[in-house]
Amino acid sequence: MIRSITAALAAIVLVTGCTTVDPVTGERTPNRTVNGAIIGAVVGAGAGTLAGGDDRRNALIGAGIGALAGGAIGNYMDRTYQNLRQRLAGTGVGVERVGEQIRLVFPADLTFDLDRDNVKSQFVPTLRDTGDVLREYDQTLVDVYGHADCTGADDYNFDLSQRRANNVADVLRSGGVIQQRLFTRGYGEEQPRMQPCSAAGNRRVEVYISAFTG
What is the pTM of this model? Predict the structure, then answer.
């Protein structure tokens, strides 16, 4: 166990140094393939304590979804990201890399009518396109988070954000993203992206996509 922990700590230190230089911009960026290998080593080191304690992971394994490991993680997430950027170009959906995760931002004015939780019919095809990519790259976890602004009562905003997250997940599920990969949560007005907290941009659903590492 001590050796495993030591190896994991050493790997974490190495992550900060694994970068490449962009040949176009000259900027130094993370080498995601190498960092993916390091993250895989960290995950492997802790697998003994995590296995059996994660119902979601066990459900994915039971559904036949294989876990990613080592250098495959960074490359797999890069391909997922590029495919999502291509499929969602021009839709108004934000597609961002956040560390080793991918974040999709669905603005509320595109996704829902004011004060409603049903996904707009004209936005369903965009969610279908999202689901198509997620179905192809199925070795990922999909976390759907609803957010509200600070207009109105706290409890109401929390409930609305949860229902919106659930309904986005329902559309993804109906398009073939299996239930075991999905998790939903409403945050209400707890996590504004901009000020003032009543700004329209705070009304949104965010989807975080991360590698399933077993």
Answer: 0.75
